[in-house]
Design a protein that fits this description.
- The complex is a heterodimer of chains A (354) and B (291).
- By secondary structure, chain A is of the alpha/beta class.
- Helices cover 41% and strands 19% of the residues of chain A.
- Chain A has helices at residues 2-17, 19-24, 41-56, 74-82, 96-105, 130-144, 159-175, 192-204, 218-226, 254-266, 293-308, 335-339; strands at residues 26-31, 60-65, 87-90, 110-114, 123-128, 149-154, 180-185, 209-213, 229-234, 245-251, 273-276, 283-285, 318-319, 325-326.
- In chain A, the strands form 3 sheets. In chain A, strands 2-1-3-4-5-11 form a 6-stranded parallel beta sheet, sandwiched between helices. Chain A has a 6-stranded mixed beta sheet with strand order 7-6-8-9-10-12, with helices on both faces. A two-stranded antiparallel sheet of chain A has the order 13-14.
- In chain A, strand 8 (209-213), helix 9 (218-226) and strand 9 form a beta-alpha-beta unit.
- The longest helix of chain A has 17 residues, at 159-175.
- Chain A is globular.
- The relative contact order of chain A is 0.13.
- Chain B has 291 residues and is mainly alpha-helical.
- Chain B has a single domain, classed as Orthogonal Bundle (ABC transporter involved in vitamin B12 uptake, BtuC).
- Chain B is built from 12 helices and 2 strands; from the N terminus they run H-H-H-H-E-E-H-H-H-H-H-H-H-H.
- Chain B has helices at residues 2-30, 38-56, 59-83, 88-107, 126-144, 146-156, 158-163, 168-194, 206-216, 221-243, 250-268, 272-278, and strands at 120-121, 124-125.
- Chain B has a two-stranded antiparallel sheet with strand order 1-2.
- Chain B is globular, with a radius of gyration of 19 Å.
- The chains are: A alpha/beta (354), B mainly alpha (291).
- The interface between A and B is large, with 47 and 47 residues.
């Protein structure tokens, strides 16, 4: 919050004092949900920004605002637009409406909204196929679990999260058809205490591997404490669980940010809906650790197959929880089906909150 | 049995920081000072506790540092509100904002570092036991000792207390510092004992819950224990219910701790006379000695 004020003040100073100077540079701005020190989701976006600074140097001026609540995002986004940002990346699903709202007022500013689905003439969306990484994790979990149960900590029932659960489950079922997951919705993206508590409860209920779709490293810390296993989220969290982390699905936004800003600089920029995955390097796996070599080899082969396009986690036919079947045999589900996913696959023991 | 114990210990660990922070704030408020900076003092305690443990390798030093950091923030609050007579509400909010920002700055190099967890016996560590000792001591101090009576007098009518010769500002400084040390310790509990790690903003609003508990517990230590444990128990049971597949909407489950705790404490506090007797009448008011 403090940093938010400081960066807002700095932005104001930049606008007032050095306007002529700033005009030479492309001003690119980011709005973060969490703190850049969360060692997870927001940290990874900021790593992408660092890559921009490295690749494009003084051609680009980067500004960020952190800890912006989804409900009050319109104000901070508009402030950035007013302060001369030419392109604004809003990095959380809940920023969708505020982004559109501000974009309508500033038609000459380009907006890029992460993980959403609504667009406008100056609003692009960008997303990553996080679920690809979760398929690999599902396979590893099914191989490594002794109890055959994984605990899964989740934030909110949005399509990205649901697709992650399904992909994890399909991966696990490809190894052990009877694999089970226990799900806890914590209704927050970031609350280390709650995430840690959820992990403890899941371990007490028979899970021996923890997966999470929340932003802190608390779950992997608890796994390390209790001698259990788990996966890092968004970022390589091996430091928090040197004996616990099996791998992590790492969001690698740098290549995308660099590409888009280069397009802005050379004038080829066009709004689009981007959805990169392992093939483009946006989804990467942290090194496979704390597992035997045969499991490593299996995981690596799956990664290679997904990267080359040989394997798609959502290849039909897929049986839903309610018994209906979707997808044609041998064909992957359409992108729209995954981006709007609001159903569980068969074998998930939970009722999807609506 | 093992499973039940695992859940019980999770509940205790979730309730302890709330209890410690709330009991400290209770003393501060009993003396008439409303310090809304609990969250800020707590997060400073968390970063100081983790940092000191990491640098020295000793959790004892870490615990001490967390109390010191919380008390330090509280003294800043005290200086602004008691000496310079700034508005308590605004200053408290500023302390919270300052604490969150400053802790992020201080903690930058501690992110991702490892420390030994506070030693414990089957999950019960010294701070859990201490939290109950603390409640007992505070209860005894406030209602059984002369100084406790003075603190309550200062909180109820600072002008009368002053004319009786009590040092209003001095007593308030002491109570505010105690409240800060407790808040700091509560933060330290999170970063040293509960999930031993430092990450920005890791208290995630627990200071505000502690603040609310004090009010709903009508400034009575025993009710603070009840409130903190009720809140902790229901938050954890809400998770347990989810893993059992009972199909209760999780959104409902995640608001139940707030609802149940508030309703329960309001119900037991509905006696107006008890309420009036225990609400510090001078809460939040600045004191200026008139002679």
């Amino acid at each position: 919050m403090k940093k938010l004020l400081i960066s807002a003040a700095l932005a104001a100073m930049a606008l007032g004092g050095t306007q002529a100077h700033a005009a030479d540079k492309l001003k690119a701005c980011w709005v973060y949900l969490g703190a850049i020190g969360d060692m997870g989701y927001t940290f990874q976006h900021n790593e992408g920004v660092k890559e921009v600074q490295k690749e494009l140097g003084d051609k680009v001026e980067t500004v960020y605002v952190e800890n912006v609540p989804e409900a009050d995002a319109a104000g901070p986004i508009e402030r950035l637009a007013r302060d001369g940002c030419k392109i604004i990346f809003t990095t959380s699903f809940g920023y969708m409406e505020p982004t559109l709202q501000v974009a309508a007022k500033y038609p000459n500013v380009m907006f890029e909204h992460a993980t959403g689905y609504k667009t406008a003439p100056n609003v692009s969306t960008y997303n990553a196929k996080f679920h690809q990484g979760r398929y690999v994790e599902g396979q590893i979990a099914a191989k490594m679990s002794k109890t055959g149960v994984a605990g899964y900590i989740v934030s909110f029932p949005i399509p990205e999260v649901v697709a992650g659960i399904n992909s994890f489950m399909l991966g696990a079922q490809s190894v052990n058809p009877n694999f089970k997951i226990k799900i806890i919705w914590v209704n927050t993206w970031f609350d280390p205490g709650k995430e840690g508590d959820a992990a403890k409860v899941l371990f007490s209920q028979g899970a021996d591997i923890i997966v999470q779709h929340t932003d802190s490293a608390a779950a992997i810390t608890v796994a390390e404490q209790q001698g259990k296993l788990g996966f890092g989220q968004s970022s390589d969290q091996i430091k928090f669980g040197p004996n616990a982390q099996l791998t992590a699905d790492v969001d690698n936004w740098g290549p995308y940010y660099v590409r888009r800003l280069k397009q802005m600089l050379d004038g080829t920029y066009k709004p689009l809906q981007s959805w990169d995955g392992m093939a483009e390097g946006t989804v990467a796996m942290a090194p496979f650790t704390n597992m035997p070599d045969d499991v490593k080899a299996m995981a690596q082969k799956t990664v290679d197959d997904i990267t080359s396009g040989k394997l798609d986690p959502f290849t039909g036919p897929i049986t839903k929880q309610d018994g209906t079947v979707v997808g044609e045999k041998g064909k992957p589900l359409a992108d729209g089906d995954i981006l709007g996913m609001n159903w569980y696959v068969k074998g998930v023991d939970d009722k999807l909150p609506q | 049995m093992e499973q039940l114990w695992a859940i019980a210990i999770t509940i205790i660990a979730a309730s302890t920081p709330l209890l410690i922070a709330a009991i400290g704030e209770l003393v501060s408020e009993r003396s008439g000072v409303l310090n809304l900076g609990v969250e800020g003092m707590m997060i400073m305690g968390a970063v100081a506790g983790f940092g000191a443990t990491y640098l020295t390798g000793s959790s004892a030093v870490g615990i001490f540092a967390s109390m010191l950091a919380g008390a330090g923030m509280a003294m800043l609050f005290g200086f602004l509100t008691l000496t310079l007579l700034a508005n308590q509400v605004a200053t408290g909010l500023a302390i919270t904002l300052l604490g969150i920002g400053l802790s992020a700055l201080i903690g930058e190099n501690f992110v991702g570092k490892q420390i030994e967890r506070l030693p414990n016996f089957h999950g019960i560590d010294i701070l859990i036991i201490f939290s109950f000792v603390l409640v007992g001591l505070v209860s005894w101090f406030l209602f059984r000792t002369r100084y406790g009576l003075m603190v309550r007098a200062v909180g109820d009518s600072h002008t009368s207390a002053h004319s009786m010769g009590f040092s209003v500002v001095g007593l308030r400084y002491a109570c505010v510092a105690f409240g800060g040390a407790c808040a700091g310790l509560a933060g330290g509990y999170l970063s040293i004992a509960d999930t031993p790690q430092w990450v920005e903003n890791m208290t995630a609003g627990r200071g505000w819950i502690a603040l609310a508990l004090v009010v709903f517990a009508t400034w009575l230590p025993k009710r603070v224990v009840l409130g903190a444990y009720l809140f902790g128990t229901i938050s954890i049971l809400a998770f347990v219910v989810q893993t059992m597949g009972l199909n209760v909407p999780p959104q409902l489950l995640s608001c139940t701790p707030y609802l149940v705790t508030i309703v329960a404490l309001v119900l037991i506090s509905r006696n107006k006379r008890v309420l009036r007797a225990n609400t510090p009448a001078c809460l939040g008011q600045a004191f200026v000695a008139d002679r």
